[in-house]
Design a protein that fits this description.
This protein is α/β, with parallel strands linked by helices. It has 16 helices and 29 strands. Helix 3 crosses helix 4 and helix 7 packs across helix 15. Keywords: Transferase.
Length: about 550
Amino acid sequence: MDIRHLAPGLAVSEQIFPHQLTELKNTGFRAIVCNRPDGEGSDQPLFAEIKRAAEAVGIEAHYLPAESGKVTDEQGVAFGQLFETLPKPVLAYCRSGMRSTTMWALSQASLLPLPQIVETAKDAGFDMKGVIRRIANKGLTPVEVAEAEHAVVIIGGGAAGIAAASSLLAREPGLDIAIIDPADVHYYQPGWTLVGCGVFDAPRTAHTMGSTIPRGVHWIKAAVAAFEPERNALILDGCRVVKYQQLIVCPGLKLNWNAIEGLPQTLGRNGVTSNYLYHLAPYTWECVQKLRGGRAIFTQPPMPIKCAGAPQKAMYLSADHWRREGVLGNIKIDFCSAGAVLFGVPDYVPALMEYIRAYGIDLNFGSTLTAVDGPAKTATFSCVKPDGTRQLVTRDFNLLHVVPPQIAPDFIRISPLADAAGWIDVDPDTLRHKTWANIHALGDATNSSNAKTAAAARKQAPVVAHNVLAAMGKAKGNAHYDGYGSCPLTVERGKIVLAEFTYGGTVAPSFPSWLIDGTRPSRLAWLLKERILPPLYWKGMLKGHEWLAKPELADL
């Protein structure tokens, strides 16, 4: 843990984890304050998990969340008041410690000289100059005062952001690029399905962010708070300002765990799990191995979600394990999906239905998970009746694999870049923003209708790279994205239905049918998923190699 002492009785830190609470107790901390909202990252434990672990060792735990870079004066006051009431010493934490330090700085604005606040924060490793400018400017952040400016700024260091940066450098070596991302670790999230069935170990899916960002690209380790597109400026946490000539936005999705009543309090115990969190995918495998009888429920929320096939992948691989163990007949499997069909591209449904029947899975369409009672082991669904009305149905479970509702990140949904539904408003063909010509977007947070998968980002990155350079006068013509997405549906250990499609659900295979027929389960497709795609991701896509991903150019 990187604990930094800020003031008498107060320290701040980056994200903490449940297993660290005993160490914090032994260090002497008597209270913790969480300033990070749930759902910001796929490797982030929910506050309910932290609180349980804290209370178990006798530490008070309090929740005072703030959006990154948007700590209000009122939250600063609330932080100061809470701190005064808590037993000391107190540890406040968020993603990096910046929000907690900002809250402290705002709480001290009327008590300490501003230079003392700056120096105290600086000694702890935090730059509060932007916050002080905001205090001096009566709550406003002057965007004219930029701490950095780059030719291309990329928001997000996930698959889309790293691939876009690498594709840019492959075309224009030496281009001035900065990636803004507060995370320390880059994850190969498509591998978490295989972690959840015991094929991969979780650490195999994680690389440090520093080793993943392309050489020569600046890394701004911060979170974006707001956009000022009229001024070509971004406001970061700590009220810092970065300016750009061209902006690429690819921040990923927010997992909305709190949209399901009772879920945060029981996730990770009582047989409630999810492959959508790094630290819970191993728990999925643990639960699957332990289950010898009873009911297993797998849920799918309303679209859009990243990797729409992932809810089914977890189900098929679990069922296959139970079949191999000879206990499948003792387990009732329910697939409860908010959607109306098994899979959105009809060509792949017949093969999937063969496995539905073979595993004895009960399909429940129009069923949206609304509440979970972990200790009672019950899940409540809002179900569409034949007449179109809804009714609540409660089901018992022994294992519950939950896929949470997913939305664009908060700073996107309230920004001028968003459409009415909160997604980044782009032209689906060029991925250029419909209003701001020097802004492009790709990945999961756009409103294009493609599947939200790493395979889609692999195809989108070269398109965005070309079009950004064209906007800078360094390339000619427009590159076009056809909506390609891919979903390797792991129907059993050793076989995959390789779904590939473009806009409108048009089947778009990458291989001849004699090699891999995507509409049928294939062992070769499994080898592709298990052995080839991970190195292709790390050493190909993220390095700017565009194998089978060269963009189509027009208007030359």
